[in-house]
C-alpha cells in the first residue's frame, strides 16, 4: 500500500507540468524513481494497426529519442499480451529469448524484460519497456500489480490533458490513419 501511495503522490505532480513533451519525460523519470529499474523506454501504441512507436527512453546514456523503433506488436508476444490484458508482464531466461524479437536483445548481460501498459480507461495507448533492473531476481506478482497500477494512473493523468496540447497527442502516422478512416467512412456513406 505504501508503494501505491508513492506512485499516486509522484503521478499527481505530473498534472502540474505544462508541456506534453515534458510530461512524457517526467513519466519516465517518475517510473525510474519509484521502481528498481535502470532503463525505461516509452512507446505510443495505436490499436488501429497494432503499431508500437518509440518516443523517448532514459538509459545509462541519458535521455535518447527512439523514434526509429516501429513494430507491429503482434510480433512481440509479451508486449501484445500486456496491452491486450492491460496488465504488466515480465519474462526472464529462456522465456525472454522466446518472447522478444532479437533486435531488442541489446547486450549479453540482459535476460529479462518488463512491459507496462498505459491505458485511457480500457484502451491501451502506450507502454513502457524495461530490460535492466537494479535488483536481480524474478519480479513478483505483487510487484507486477504495482507496475500495472502505475500505467493506469499515468493513463488517467494523460486523459486529463486539456487545451491546445491535445492535438499533439497523435503522431503524424496516427493522424494519417484517422484521415483515411474518415475518408473511407465518408465514401461508404456516399456510395
Can you describe this structure in just a few lines?
With 191 residues, the chain is of the alpha+beta class. 41% of the residues lie in helices and 23% in strands. It is globular and about 50 Å long.
Provide structural commentary:
- Helix 1 packs antiparallel against helix 2 and helix 1 runs parallel beside helix 5.
- Strands 1, 2, 3, 4, 5, 6 and 7 form a seven-stranded antiparallel β-sheet that branches.
- The chain contains six helices and seven strands, in the order ααββββαβαββαα.
- It has helices at 2-12, 20-34, 77-85, 94-99, 141-159, 172-190; strands at residues 40-46, 51-59, 62-65, 70-72, 89-92, 112-120, 123-130.
- With 191 residues, the chain is an alpha+beta fold.
Helix % is: 40-55%
Name the structural class.
alpha+beta
Strand content: 15-25%
Total DSSP E strands: 7
Topology of this protein?
Elements: H1 2-12, H2 20-34, E1 40-46, E2 51-59, E3 62-65, E4 70-72, H3 77-85, E5 89-92, H4 94-99, E6 112-120, E7 123-130, H5 141-159, H6 172-190
Antiparallel strand pairs: 1-2, 1-7, 2-3, 2-4, 5-6, 6-7
Helix pairs in contact: 1-2, 1-5
List descriptors:
single chain; 191 residues; alpha+beta; 6 helices; 23% strand
